[in-house]
Amino acid sequence: MNNNMDNQMTRLPRGSYPAMLTAFQDDGRIDWQGVDRLTDFCIDHGAAGIFACGGSAEVSAMDDGEKGDLAERIVSHAAGRVPMVVAAITSGSIDRQAALVRRMHDAGADVVAISVCQLAREHEDDRQWIARAESLLEKIPAELRLSMYECPWPYHRLLTLETLRWAAGTGRFHFLKDTSCSMATIRERLAVLRGTPLQLLNAHTGTLFASLQAGAAGFCGIGANYLPKLYAWLCENFSSQPEQAAALQDFLASTVPRTESRDYPASAKEYLRRQGLAIGPYSRKQPAGLSADPAAWLADLRRSEVEWLERIQV
C-alpha cells in the first residue's frame, strides 16, 4: 500500500489493529488461502489496520525468507483496504535486520515494525540500543516509516522514556506497540509522544479503556483475533458511550485468562474455525495440538460475544 500513500502522512487511523494469525496446513506448511481468509476476516470485522508478521503469526518458527513471503501475500491480498504494519523480527547483525526491514517495505508495508529487544542484549544499556538503531536508520530508505514492538521474546525489553524520546525525535518512528501493561507507564509515554508523529497502541486488554481515555491511538493485541468487532467498537466509541464502553472493558478483561492461555494461538484459530472460517487450528508453536478440549469455553465465549454484539447493535 505504501506506493499509493502520501509519504508526508504522519498519522495512521486510530482503532484496532489485530495482531494477525497465520493459517497453516496440517503438515505445518503455510496455508496461503487460509492467510487470505484471515486477512479478509480482519478487514471485514472492523480493523483500522493490520499488524502482520508478529508474535501471533508465529514468525519465531519461520526463516527470514518465509517471513518476507508471508508479508508479500498479506499486503497484496489486502490491496490497500487498510494500512499495513508489518513486523521485521529477526536476529543477528544490523545488516541482516536492515535487509528484512527493506524487504517488508518493498512488499508494500506502510510501516515496518522492529522488535525492541533485537537491537540490544538484555544487559546492554540505552546508549548501545540507540547506537544500533541509528545504524539501522542509516541502512534503510529515509522515507521508510518504522514501528517499535515490545516483543516478549527472546526477552522482554521495555523502552525507557529516554529511548522513546530519542525515537520520537527522529521523526522516523510512527507506531509503538506498547506491552508495558502499566497505566502509569502509558501516561508517561503519552506525555513524551505528545506533538510527535509517534502513536502509542496498547497491546494489553486490562488497561485498554483507560489508555484510550488517556490518549492512546488504539489496540494492537491478542484479543482482537477472537473478538474483533468488540475491540473495534471499544476503540471507536470509548468517548461517546463511556458507560457502555466501561462495561465492555470489564467483559473483555474477564476473557484474558482464557484467550491468552498457553494454547494461544491455536485456540484463536479453533475459535474462528468454529464460526465457519475455513482455517485449521494447526500451530507451529504447538504441533501436538491443543493441551485440552476447548469446546466448552469457546462456546461460552461465543455466546457472550453474540450477546455483546446485540447489546451494542453491531
Order of the strands making up the biggest sheet: 1-8-7-6-5-4-3-2
The CATH superfamily label reads: Aldolase class I
CATH architecture: Alpha-Beta Barrel
What's the rounded overall pLDDT mean?
A: 96
Measured distance between first and last alpha carbons: 28 Å
Q: Which structural class matches the secondary elements?
A: alpha/beta
Stretches with pLDDT under 50, minimum 5 residues: 1-9
The count of domains is 1
Beta content: 5-15%
- What's the gyration radius in Å? 18 Å
Q: Output the helix-strand order.
A: EHEHEHEHEHEHEHEHHHH
What is the percent of helical residues?
A: 40-55%
Spatial shape: globular
Number of strands: 8
How does this model look, in words?
The protein has an eight-stranded parallel β-sheet with strand order 1-8-7-6-5-4-3-2. The chain contains eleven helices and eight strands. The model is unreliable at 1-9 (pLDDT under 50). Helix content is 43%, strand content 10%. With 314 residues, the protein is an alpha/beta fold. The chain has helices at residues 32-44, 64-78, 94-106, 126-138, 161-170, 183-193, 208-214, 228-237, 242-259, 266-274, 295-311, and strands at residues 15-16, 50-52, 84-87, 111-115, 146-149, 173-178, 199-202, 218-219. The protein has one domain: Aldolase class I (TIM Barrel), CATH 3.20.20.
Quick structural overview:
This protein is of the alpha/beta class and about 325 residues long. The chain contains 11 helices and 8 strands.
Task: Give short descriptive properties of this protein.
314 residues, TIM Barrel, alpha/beta
